[in-house]
Amino acid sequence: MMIRNHLFSLLIALAVSSQGWAGGKPTADSLLVAQGDSCMAQYDYYHAMQYYTQVAEADDMVKSKLATCYFLRADYRRCVALLEQLPDSVLSHDALRQLFYSYKALDDKTTHQRRWGERLLARFPMDSEVVADMALAYNLFDEPEQALALTQRYEAEDASNILVKRQKADAQFFLKQYPEATETYEQLLALGDSTFAAHYSLGMCYEQLAEADSTLLLKAVEHYGQAVYLNDSAKAWPLYHLGAALVKLQRNAEGIHILLMALQRMQPDDAAMFNLHSALADGYYQNEEYYSAIWDWKNCLKYNPQSLASLYNIAQTYELIEEDGVKAEQAYIEFLLKAESADRTTPALEEWKRHAEGFGHVHERMEEKRAEYERIVHRLKEIENK
């Protein structure tokens, strides 16, 4: 405890000496700043922010400290609002980085992030992390020429930075400079960057080069195989490229097996597709676009054929829009037949069943359908028992 108190006193003394004295005594503002600095030393940004706020209006350096609190608490809008007010002479390397990464976090890569990145790199050209992230922004917004120029300038001094080299390789790939991109991706592997992205991109480079030299397909297969291994076969596109390359090499059995795996990964998730179509149907129904709503509820049944709610909604919507009620009647019958085999019932389901049974000629036609339905079930059981 004594050591902690001594540290606190020392921090206050240092802060006071940096803030100045009034009549030989520390000012109230300098004491508030010292308290804020003490909180920062303890990683207590919440209380530091409270002290700095009381002084920040009159002091640019304190505004910068307060902006740091906002940045570390992910309050990026307030961080940039403060720092944008400050003159260049006050903006430290940390402040420029906070502006750059705040705008990145706010997904503003097209204007503000680049502006501050360029200003930062004009003063600190060897900040490799910002070089890589600036190049990434250029690549993402289809400006690979700028990404390549930026990374090449950096590599004139340091050609072994993995973050920068990744963006250089991607820029070369986007510019269809496949021999150069291949060389850069190989350099990444030599530097130890044996990641999924490196192998996948290198596989695509070799596949492009194989159009002129078919022997390079073996290299493409090698790197696609590594990408699939590193990704545990979870993504469809590496599997597709691997399978297609194997077929080109006439290793057909392997290629077909891999392509079937890719096809399986490309199939949509049934639950997600059901929820999507269900939400669309609800929207169309509320917008009185009834046929579109029916179409989407029918799509729900493709992903969950046992969805009683979808069947009932289809029937009820047909009842609303049809004069003769034929389609509504058929839909209610299908709903009732499936409702009989439901694992559990609810008050809502019982209400739906009562409504369905009371519609039109559903009850008598249901009996006709029931006999047919029971014959089919009986026949299936006979086949199973043989």
What's the short version?
With 386 residues, this protein is mostly helical. The protein has helices at 2-19, 28-41, 45-53, 60-72, 76-83, 93-105, 112-123, 128-140, 144-155, 162-174, 178-190, 196-209, 217-230, 236-248, 252-266, 270-286, 290-303, 308-321, 326-339, 347-357, 362-385; strands spanning 21-22, 25-26. Strands 1-2 form a two-stranded antiparallel sheet.
Protein architecture, described:
The chain contains 21 helices and two strands. It is mainly alpha-helical and 386 residues long. The protein starts with a helix and ends with a helix.
Q: Mind telling me the C-alpha Rg? A: 33 Å
- Helix proportion of residues, in percent? over 70%
Q: Roughly what fraction of the amino acids lie in strands? A: under 5%
Q: Which outline best applies?
A: flat
The chain-level mean pLDDT equals 87
* Strand-pairing-aware structural class: mainly alpha
Number of helices: 21
- The number of distinct β-strands equals 2
The spatial strand order of the largest sheet comes to: 1-2
The profile of the biggest β sheet is: 2 strands, antiparallel
Report the uncertain regions: 1-24
Order of helices and strands: HEEHHHHHHHHHHHHHHHHHHHH
